[in-house]
Amino acid sequence: MRQGRITEQHPFPTKTQKAPIMGAEFLPKSSENDLSGDYQAAPVILGLLPAALVDHIARVDLSILSRIPGEPGGSFPVAAEELKDILKEVNTHISSSPNDLSPVKTIAGGSVTNTIRGLAAGFGISCGVIGAYGDDEQGALFLKNMSFYGVNISRLRAKDVHTGQCVCLVDPMGNRTMRPCISTAAKIQACELKREDFKGSKWLVVRYSIYNLEVINAAIQIAKQEGLLISLDLASFEMVRKFKKPLLELLESGNIDLCFANEDEAAELLSGEQVVGPEAAVDVLGKYCQWAVVTLGPNGCIARHKKEANTKFVSDTNQTHNMPTNIVVKVPAIGHTIAVDATGAGDLFAGGFLYGLVKGMSLEECCMVGSCSGGSVIRSLGGEVSPENWQWMYKQFKTKGLPTPTIVTHL
């Protein structure tokens, strides 16, 4: 089994320094696929990237997790010096893959990036991103990786600073610990967002972050003015725990149409409440959102859809109202697979679920597609699904009687 290694360097290379390339699999295979030029139609789904990220994904042993800031298993920002220290630790303690895979690779990263790239690559949905990247080697890598998959990158602004980076540590059980460093990275400002960025699209995908709350709120306001639906991911249990009040204010705004949480995030959301558990979490989220989903790892997911029924009632003010109905489904995980790396599982689940909504599928079918999509990414290292694992997902679709995307020509 091959050993991978992260070379010791400053966490933010200058324009003249090479980005730390840990493997070739993240790179586009042909410049013929560079789709970074003009685009005619608006993307169906947009992703908000306040600060574009490049992920450095590494296998590590458990001992290293106790020596880095924050709790294992979550995602929480670190400073540049902390990132440098983590890279040193990884350089010393990195472990090899049991399947002889390259244990370290670098790709365009981040939760929203994983969702958008997956929708474009595996489902053939027209997607784009709004945000900023640094005018450096890392930024160039990000653009090339995303444009290779047909993601519209025309709404990204170049900044004369560094592109953000994230170290993704994967333990022997396939669980991941994320430490992004974005404090000094290229970021888009709320005042830079324009209505033209959102015009004609159907969905905006957002990840909760207290550090980007101003631009998130601005993007949501403009998107709503343009008639877009908003999908929100709760990011991490650490982010929910430390910044629960602003999150609740965001949910209570009534602007969030779809919300995703994993079990840990749902537990933090309900911290201090008398009733807990995934079922209680979807009920709480369902008060604010039309769709609410709690993913349960190997146990599948539970989801709720609140919709207006044809049944009408007259209120005490003599006004006629539609009576809302709630549909709740619990769907088991589909397709037995051993998790090599859980990075991107929730992000790809969200992509599959959104694909189902765009295609008018039922709530249960959306969950099934999400489960297949999430299962495809955990079969290898990182949040980028390989062609072989997309084929695995399409076969799961066929087994469950789900329609395959039109981009699939054969199985």
State the total count of DSSP E strands.
Answer: 13
Major β-sheet profile: 9 strands, mixed
Strand order of the largest sheet: 5-4-1-8-9-10-11-12-13
Number of helices: 12
Q: At the first level of CATH, what is the class of the domain at 44-50 and 112-158 and 185-400?
A: Alpha Beta
Radius of gyration of CA atoms, rounded to a whole number:
21 Å
* CATH topology annotation of the domain at 44-50 and 112-158 and 185-400: UDP-N-acetylmuramoyl-L-alanine:D-glutamate ligase
Distance between the termini: 31 Å
Overall shape: it is globular
Q: How does the helix and strand content classify structurally?
A: alpha/beta
Summarize the structure.
The protein is 32% helix and 23% strand. It is an alpha/beta fold and 411 residues long. It has a domain at 44-50 and 112-158 and 185-400: 3-Layer(aba) Sandwich (UDP-N-acetylmuramoyl-L-alanine:D-glutamate ligase), CATH 3.40.1190.
